[in-house]
Design brief:
Signal recognition particle alu RNA binding heterodimer, srp9/1, 2 domains, 3 helices, 7 strands
Length: 135
């Protein structure tokens, strides 16, 4: 954590918390109470919208050492990864944060394949099956 702003509101408060995410960049989160939020609000941005948890997530570049360091610290707290996926070109370790937002630690293995023509073709394909048939 590198900075926190705290603001009083008429009947509540807002905290804006900044974390160093590397390379001179930050990611920021809000904590708040009584600022006009609906009584049924929720932070689980994917499942509360009826989609799988992996649809909305934050991804961060990581080395294998960073992934294993995080894994060890999380396991020491009794927290297991939500998912682990070998994408072929990268290896991803996923955890749910306290607000039920999925966080991905992504380690390059072979590097993302760059094929702009194929990427454009797949973008407009109506289904994965039809994309394979049209190759």
């Amino acid at each position: 954590m590198v900075n926190t702003e705290f603001h009083d509101r008429e009947d509540g408060w807002i905290k804006h918390v900044f974390f160093d995410s590397g390379n001179g960049q930050c990611i920021a989160f809000f904590a708040f109470e009584n600022i006009g939020e609906r009584s049924d609000w929720t932070t689980d941005v994917s499942e509360s919208l009826g989609v799988p948890v992996f649809i909305n997530h934050a991804a961060f570049e990581a080395t294998e050492e960073m992934q294993e360091s995080v894994r060890a610290r999380m396991e020491a707290e009794g927290i297991q990864p939500t998912m682990e996926i070998d994408h072929g070109w990268c290896y991803s370790l996923y955890y749910l944060d306290p607000n039920q937002v999925l966080v991905e630690l992504c380690r390059d293995t072979k590097g993302m394949p760059i094929n702009k023509k194929e990427a454009a073709r797949l973008l407009v394909a109506p289904t994965a099956t039809s994309a394979r048939l049209c190759q």
